[in-house]
Design a protein that fits this description.
Length: about 160
């Protein structure tokens, strides 16, 4: 059996693979920035995987890391450079997905696992709104999400008080 490749199908496949992942989308009528014209994507938006992120060693370290990401993201947006928040947004998402597991293996009592799960999910939801706005080339409204983010981080911090050494 002989397999031939059709150049059109190869181009379609390649185009679909390149389109995967998080990247800034050009809006109709919007002229792309010079860096987007050259590369076709936001240079600050580089796809990462879990292997690219150093995982927190403990639950407390994880909560500190989440608060640190919040600060970096907030400051990038405040400085008028929201695309500089891409890496922190991606790393934050990965750490928040792993935080419940980190909590379970690091002495967080079973009756607090649901708090960790829901707080991590809520933080992800808030930051997903911010990330979506950045990807759409819109100005993210951090102030609209700030109170919810801070409340959920406080919930995560309160769980650290229940850990038995």
């Amino acid at each position: 059996m002989r397999i031939t490749t059709n150049p059109l199908w190869s181009a379609i496949l390649l185009g679909s693979l390149v389109g995967l992942g998080c990247e800034a989308k050009t809006q109709p009528g919007k002229v792309p920035a010079p860096s987007e014209q050259i590369t076709g994507h936001d240079p600050d938006d580089i796809p990462i995987t879990e292997a690219d992120v150093e995982m927190p060693k403990s639950y407390g370290d994880g909560v500190e890391r989440v608060a640190g990401y919040r600060d970096v993201i907030r400051d990038a947006i405040k400085a008028g450079t929201p695309t500089k928040a891409h890496r922190s947004l991606d790393e934050l998402d990965i750490v928040l997905r792993k935080l419940p597991e980190i909590a379970r293996v690091n002495g967080v009592p079973r009756d607090q696992w649901e708090t960790v799960n829901t707080a991590a999910r809520e933080i992800r939801n808030h930051f997903n709104k911010i990330h979506a706005a950045i990807d759409a080339g819109e100005k993210p409204n951090y102030a609209q999400e700030a109170e919810g983010i801070d409340q959920e981080i406080d919930r995560l911090k309160s769980v650290t008080e229940t850990i038995k050494e």
